[in-house]
Amino acid sequence: MKGTKSAVLVLSLLAVIGLSACVGSNETKTKSSIELPQGHVLVADQIAFNKAMENAQPGQTIVLANGVWEDFEMLVQGKGTKESPIGVSAQTEGEVILSGLSNLSLYGEHLVVSGLVFKDGYSPTGSVISFRKSGDKLANHSRVTRTVIDNFSNPDKFSSDNWVAMYGRYNRFDHNHLEGKSNAGVTMAVRLNSVASQENYHQIDHNYFGPRPILGSNGGETLRVGTSKYSLSNSFTVVENNYFDRANGEVEIISNKSGSNTFRNNTFFESRGTLTLRHGNGNLVEGNVFLGNGKDHTGGIRVINADQTIRNNYMEGLTGIRFGGGFVVLNGVPNSRINRYHQVKNTVIENNTLVNLSNINLAAGSDAERTAVPIDSAFKNNLVVSEGEQPFKIFDDVSGITFSGNLTNADMPEQIASGFVKQAIKVERAATGLLVNTEAASKGVGASLTLRPIDKNKTGVSWYPKDTQLVEFSSGNEVTVDSPQGLVDAVANANAGDVIKLVAGEYEMVKPLIVDTTVTIMGSGEKAAVVYPMRTLLAEISDGGSLKLHNLVIDGEKAPDAAGNVLVRNTRLPTLKNYRLSFDNVIVRNLNVNHSAHVFDAGYRSMADRITITDSVFENITGDILRLNKEQDDLGIYNLEYLTISNSQFKDIQGAVAKIYRGGTDESTFGPHVFVENSRFENIAKGKRNKHQASFYLHGAQDTDLLNNEFVDLMPIIIEHTVGEPQTLVANNSFIDVELPKVTEVFTKGDSTAVLRNNTVKGSK
Ligand code: CA
């Protein structure tokens, strides 16, 4: 019986190899076929794969031939055994590429998939890798390992999906590399939506969760375990030894929404947001390392709910504020609905080291709804070291947290000071890379000396690089051009980081520049290159483009006599990639041939990481300078993270300097941030088409600083605070013939929280 079966297998193996030999290189295929171990079947196309899968027996591995597998929705199904799983692997790990409309689902028992790369495409369904075939056809005891998902994002940014959806029980996801998710939706989700997926004992380990850009909306979490609806169920998922590298999507890096999970020994490197114990009880968070390096909005752990244990974690250089702080304990809602905030109780926070955190927030979120203060909890034997101001901010009664045995070098607030010994503390950088104080450690205070962050190189796979960096402006090659067509061609042919230098002279631009990579366009000599837009548009930033204009004059006097000319805009299609735009030492003048000529017009569903205007002059313009108000659906989506205007002059502008809109009540995002300093604004926003009658209209900006500016004879600055405790500081400005900025609170009652100080006001208004 056994002999017969083997014979059949050999025959089908030969048939499959025969088929595959017709495709691709004979030499490689033959060579690998010979080397294939017993029970391995090499397949080279989808038909062969499906046939092999149908016949797959325990112990068998289906090997995908190297090459690009396009539009492949791979279903791995069958019943392996613990000793003899059914495998799917790559002929060579990293050389089997799934592209186009592809995905993977698993259904059955003891299945193991390894060595694949998903890139150059996206999943046509709700996930790239799913541990189920359909509603109740789940995978159990199965594993996906050494697999890469790289920028496999749905091009429709707000078409939400998950790259990995774990269902079933006892599954493992390990040593995978996930990077560059740019569309909405949690990168990886553990689902508990049926009994068959609860108490699942999944293992998520040694994965590299690479850079995830700022989404500018809710739905940018990197890992979520559970959902609020099932959050009182236990998951028993272990998340350990993973590396989170610049996981910046939104305020939750990890959103835990179930019970009895373990988060152990993960490293969070320069990642915005926090590991959030959002719902569910009885979770353990230990041995994790958070390294913020002072980067904006880097956070640590946010604690909510009951019976949580947070011990032996290390946090350093985290700048996060409010809910995104370095360490945060939230207030709950009395008798909370399942999707609000359950009270913190019976929670232990011990032996953590917290070094140079900007904010440790206790009873955070205290308001008319969140009144249930933490109870029956302990904060003990922690080491809190601060070079600057002491980090604690206390928002309500914290007498339900017992403080004891903690050590600090800072002046603690009165309510908690008795739980700390204050003394000078010298910390040194140990071989582990972490700051330690051996004396404290010997007394059992702070994190253990043996705590060692998981090394990036021990996560993911060795054959796929983990070095993605943003390409800076002017980091590439330089080309010099001397004609308009030369400029058009140079922009079209540019590589990321390139600089295109215009020799002195006049450039009448009859074709728009299409910017699809990171490009700097600069004049040589002191503003000796003058660019004349001859059409309704000078430059379009398409998906993946970023533009810096430097040392130029742009003069609109020869532009067509049409309403609504635009100097620079995004492509009209929604874009997936965030972009940067910079005007540095640029004069923009005479955009006034007809009405409503704008300098920059953002696209619907576009997101600027950063727009900067430095040392520049804008004058005689009939439209707006920056239009970043395209997301009017009030979903918390917006068009810009950071705007900086500095050392610049604006005069005779009929529209607004900036219109920025982040509508709705969502609190999962960081921006927009607006910084305006050392600049002068005169005769702004008086055009009759400027409907807000405002020189700046900022709705929902989170952080606005107006410092050391001169405002002369212009329509008022209107700032509308929405949710998220927005910060506005207006200081050291001079206002001449203009009223002070109007700051209103849209959702909260009472006076505005804006700080206006040291401003001088002169003139008739
Ligand atoms: Ca969220």
Q: What is the global morphology?
A: globular
Return the structural class.
mainly beta
Unreliable sequence segments? 1-33
Instruction: State the end-to-end CA separation.
Output: 99 Å
Strand content: 35-45%
Tally of helical segments: 5
Return Rg in Å: 29 Å
Sheet bearing the most strands, described? 19 strands, parallel
Would you count the extended β strands for me?
A: 72
The amount of helix comes to under 10%
Cofactors and ligands present?
A: calcium ion
Q: Short description, anyone?
A:
The protein is mainly beta and 765 residues long. The chain contains 5 helices and 72 strands.
Describe this structure as you would to a colleague.
The chain is mainly β and 765 residues long. Strand 45, helix 5 (484-493) and strand 46 (498-502) form a beta-alpha-beta unit. The longest helix is centred in the first third of the chain and has 20 residues, at 2-21. The radius of gyration is 29 Å and the shape is globular. The chain binds calcium ion.
Helices and strands, with pairings:
Blueprint: H1 2-21, H2 26-35, E1 40-43, H3 46-54, E2 61-64, E3 67-70, E4 73-79, E5 86-90, E6 96-101, E7 103-109, E8 111-114, E9 117-122, E10 127-130, E11 132-134, E12 137-140, E13 143-145, E14 148-150, E15 162-166, E16 172-174, E17 177-179, E18 188-190, E19 203-205, E20 208-209, E21 223-226, E22 238-240, E23 243-245, E24 252-257, E25 262-264, E26 267-269, E27 273-279, E28 284-286, E29 289-291, E30 298-303, E31 309-311, E32 314-316, E33 327-330, E34 348-350, E35 353-355, E36 360-364, E37 377-380, E38 383-385, E39 392-394, E40 401-404, E41 406-408, E42 420-422, E43 428-429, E44 435-436, H4 438-442, E45 478-481, H5 484-493, E46 498-502, E47 505-509, E48 513-515, E49 518-523, E50 529-533, E51 537-541, E52 546-555, E53 566-570, E54 579-591, E55 598-601, E56 608-614, E57 617-621, E58 626-628, E59 640-646, E60 649-653, E61 658-661, E62 673-677, E63 680-684, E64 696-699, E65 703-707, E66 710-712, E67 717-721, E68 727-731, E69 734-736, E70 742-745, E71 755-757, E72 760-762
Parallel strand pairs: 1-2, 2-5, 3-6, 4-7, 5-8, 6-9, 7-10, 7-12, 8-13, 9-14, 10-15, 13-16, 14-17, 15-18, 16-19, 17-20, 18-21, 19-22, 20-23, 21-24, 22-25, 23-26, 24-27, 25-28, 26-29, 27-30, 28-31, 29-32, 30-33, 31-34, 32-35, 33-36, 34-37, 35-38, 36-39, 37-40, 38-41, 41-42, 45-46, 46-49, ...
Antiparallel strand pairs: 11-12, 43-44
Bound molecules: calcium ion.
Residues 218, 221, 250, 252, 255, 668 line the site of calcium ion (CA).
